[in-house]
């Protein structure tokens, strides 16, 4: 019971995503942060407000973190389909702790 | 990018790159805005030389020049979005005699003009700070703070010379200087020459004047003692 809980907690903390999701995450980071930087620069320059630029930059970066860091479901749409183990017959009659497994 | 920690690290890494590039472009944007500072008037209104001691326990007597001046300058073009504060200072400068140091230069008055974006950093009390913030009227930049109009301004620092003698010094001029301190980028001072969109500060020096001779205090005292 405790081990199961620990495993679940570890899964949530690790937040693994599949290969397609990793590609998407990288693309999202590059695009989102570049856009945020450009927006902060131009908004700041044309409105002549350096504080606005700083807050836009930091806020946009925080939003990007929120978008990319948690393992959102759209990062896990293409799970790896492992092939079945070939050439070995599934074992039968395994005895563990005097219990039968089939 | 397979786990949360790796994504956190990569995102932060790219954020630092973006922040550096944006900051570089902000500092370069200074060159796009014209700087046209002018000095319309800088003249002395009263000159005095007195004897004094550098500090209370000193037995050394030195001569101090006390200079009052009027200034009319427009530095409003120095205030852009990247300006944090402008340091303005007036110096007295005079050539030296013989084989001493080439020039003598001493600050007699200075002022820090903060941009509204750095009002919270100004070294003033809470009431004055409130007044300062209010004066910007909510605008992110306030070029009108660059307009200086001083009439018969008292010196902030009394000046002397390492030799202790400054009375009757000739060919003294007052000069206005400024130092622009940006949020990002390099410090820049007033220029002698025009550079791109940044114009030289013309008329920054006052007419040459001579400091008066020392007041003869002793005679006055003698007269008083003889009278009584």
TrEMBL record, chain A:
A GO cellular component annotation here is:
signal peptidase complex
Membrane topology, record value: Multi-pass membrane protein
Transmembrane segments annotated in the record for this chain: 27-47, 54-75
List the GO biological process terms. Answer: protein targeting to ER; signal peptide processing
Main localization of the protein?
endoplasmic reticulum
Where is this gene product found? Answer: Endoplasmic reticulum membrane
Q: What does this protein do?
A: Component of the signal peptidase complex (SPC) which catalyzes the cleavage of N-terminal signal sequences from nascent proteins as they are translocated into the lumen of the endoplasmic reticulum. Dispensable for SPC enzymatic activity.
**Which family does the UniProt entry place this protein in?**
Belongs to the SPCS1 family.
Q: What is this protein called?
A: Signal peptidase complex subunit 1
UniProtKB/TrEMBL annotation, chain B:
Where is it mostly found? endoplasmic reticulum
Q: Which UniProt keywords apply?
A: Endoplasmic reticulum, Membrane, Signal-anchor, Transmembrane, Transmembrane helix
**Single biological process term from Gene Ontology:** protein targeting to ER
Q: Where are the transmembrane segments?
A: 12-33
| Gene Ontology CC terms, in alphabetical order | signal peptidase complex
Its biological purpose: Essential component of the signal peptidase complex (SPC) which catalyzes the cleavage of N-terminal signal sequences from nascent proteins as they are translocated into the lumen of the endoplasmic reticulum. Essential for the SPC catalytic activity, possibly by stabilizing and positioning the active center of the complex close to the lumenal surface. Essential for viability.
Family label: Belongs to the SPCS3 family.
Q: What is this protein called?
A: Signal peptidase subunit 3
What is the organism field in this record?
Cladorrhinum samala
